# Entry
Amino acid sequence: MNNGEYWNPILETMPRERLQKLQLKKFREIFTWAYERSKFYHKLYGDAGIEPGDIKKFEDIKKVPKIEKSMMRSIQGKDPFPYGDILSVPLEEVTAYRQTSGTTGQPVYQADTWQDWEFSTEAYCYALYAQGYRAKDRIFLPFGYNIFIAFWAYHYAGEKLGCEVIPGGVLNTEARILKMQELKATAMGATPTYVLGMAETARKMGIDPPKDLYIRKITVAGEPGGSIPATRKRMEEAWGAKVFDQVGSTEIGHWGWECHHQAGLHVNEGFFLVEVEDVNTGESISEPGRKGKMVVTTFNRMAQPCIRFDVKDLIQWNARKCDCGRTFRLLEGGIQGRADDITKVKGVLLSPMAIEEVVRDIPQLSQEYQVVVTKKGDIDDITLKVEILPEYKKDTDAIKAKLTDQLRLKTNLGYNIEIHEYESLPRSQTKSRRFQDLRPH
Amino acid sequence: MAQEYDIKGMVTKIKALRKNAEDLKKVSGGIPAVDKNADRILANVRMLEIDITDAVELMGK
# Structure
């Protein structure tokens, strides 16, 4: 029975036992495909002494070696140029090139055939439909259509759903806001940083987004803000819209999204296998409530297969079942940071996301902040720079005291707090790197 | 509004779509306008297989 809730009720409400059987079947298929067609995977698996016939039960998947970004970087730039030995189709079948943003180093090249791109689009359709996008929506995309994957699939998925998609390409922020207003756009997709920055710009232009614009649905991606309650609240209030988190990456595709119940990220388990591993021991974590590192397999990306990719993002399963009726599992708190970003400061494990949650929960502060960790002698020193909104300057001391208390409570650390003038910290339109660790390593 | 769907019927018609698109390429004489459009159709057929056929095949096992 299709009741209009699901893009594909057959997969989205499949009983868990059958879903796991499907995942095993699909894992075997992509493993075999890569083993037979990619020199990179053939060697990786040959060296590990594993071949397709060895994947008999779900637990056998764990025996398959993981891949990391550094491995992909080391093979690219060679023939078949520029992808190297990971390529699993003839080069002439590749129809699109994209690359990672390079946030963590040299960008990784990504090859897609047209069918692969259809798959990326299809995966995004599950997200947008679950978030309530329908043919009556007019979507505005304030994104610089370029070599990064960013919101490309959102665009194609919007079209596939029958929405009207307005490519906001090279327009500047002011022009984008005016175009949104002129065309009465009802939905948009952007990074949390840009969603907040756009609202700030609109207000300066004398436009109050909830009153003067028509955006009622926003899908955010590229940064963890959509699943940080304080950041989400800011975005929803700034726009008078519902904000939905969506996660994916260039190498993997769009593997997780919130439905309109906003109960957490659903993993599209019909298209992807997401495993959670203990950061230190590598032990599988299947129970909810225990944070670990994500390892993900994309079942149907054929030109450049992504099999047991160690993403280094931290996630945990949620025990809760969503009211939407999907059998796809939920994640608690979305992406909870990167294993690489969790750092020890003064002997305490610190996640930059915990700081963001505190800052964005104080309405007298702007959304911008910077964290700088240095070393003074043998002692770590941590500085938090925030901006106070002009109308609250008289409350600076009280806000500083509140920040100090909240940060101590949430992170167990003391900070040098610098309160800056509004708009004095750098703004970013893309993935923000607000955390700087300047300690000598 | 809730609507019933016919899983077996969908699987049969998806198979027929694939066969038709593949057969079209066999008789195209290599006309790019036919082959490349058939390839696009086949990419979409693959999505139907991923969404429906692959999932349904397990139901009988």
Q: What stands out?
A: Residues 28-61 of chain B form one domain. Chain B touches chain A through 22 residues (CB under 8 Å). The CA atoms of residues 33 and 57 of chain B lie 34 Å apart. The mean pLDDT of chain B is 93.
